[in-house]
Structures are given as C-alpha cells and as structure tokens.
Amino acid sequence: MRAAAAGQWDVILSYLNRVPFDIADPIFGHDVSFYIFELPILEFVQGWLLSILLIALLGIIPIYAINNLGISSEAHGGRLVPAISVATSCCWALYS
User: Fold this and answer.
1) Phi and psi (nearest 5°) for 31?
2) pLDDT tens for each residue of 7-31
3) What is the tens place of the pLDDT at every residue in 62-76?
4) Rg of the chain's alpha carbons, rounded to an integer?
5) What is the DSSP string of 6-63?
6) What is the pTM of this model?
7) Which of 41, 62, 71, 86 could form a disulfide with 15 if both were Cys (CB 3.0 to 4.6 A apart)?
8) Can you give the pLDDT at residue 50?
C-alpha cells in the first residue's frame, strides 16, 4: 500500500497546493481546478480503499472456512456457513 502512495506523490502534492482557477465548468458548475487537483486524489483514494476491501474479502473467506466449515458442515448439509455468505456478500456489495 505504501508503494502505491509513493507512486502518487505528484497527485498528493498538487492536491495539497491547489489554487482555484475561478473558471466554472459549464455543465456541472465545479471550478476547473476540481478536475485538475481534487478529482485525481479522489480517484486514488477510491482505488486504495477498494484494494483494501478486496484484500479483506480474500482474508475473510479462509478464516471463516477454517473456523466454521469443519465444525458445522453437517448442520448445513455441506454448504457454506451462513456467516461466510453474509460477510462475503457485504464485502462484495461494498466492492461493486
């Protein structure tokens, strides 16, 4: 994760030192500086959070499988424990 942020140092610095252009976008009404300074950092943060969520999703599945599948697989007919389905569905809904 640190390497991804290190590759975006110019985006972070331009966001921290942003200056308004005082020119409004005719369609959305944002200042043009929003598209140059703020939008790239928002896209970077969104990608970073989605990658953390995907890593968490990949970490949840084996933990639930190790803890619950062997113990209660007879009770659920060999299917995945409902807790696994709920946790992975929530993470997948946030990812989508």
Assistant:
1) -70, 145
2) 888 898 999 999 999 999 999 988 9
3) 777 776 655 554 555
4) 21
5) HTTHHHHHHHHT------B-TTT--BHHIIIIIHHHHHHHHHHHHHHHHHHHHHHHHH
6) 0.65
7) 41
8) 86
The amino acid at residue 73 is S
31 SS3 class: strand
> What does the pLDDT read at residue 63?
75
User: Going by C-beta distance under 8 Å and a sequence separation of 6 or more, which residues neighbour residue 3?
Assistant: none
Number of other residues whose CB lies within 10 A of the CB of residue 52: 11
Q: If we measure between CA atoms, which residue out of 15, 7, 4, 6 comes closest to residue 38?
A: 15
Structure tokens at 26: 């005719």
Under 8 Å between Cβ of 62 and 90: no
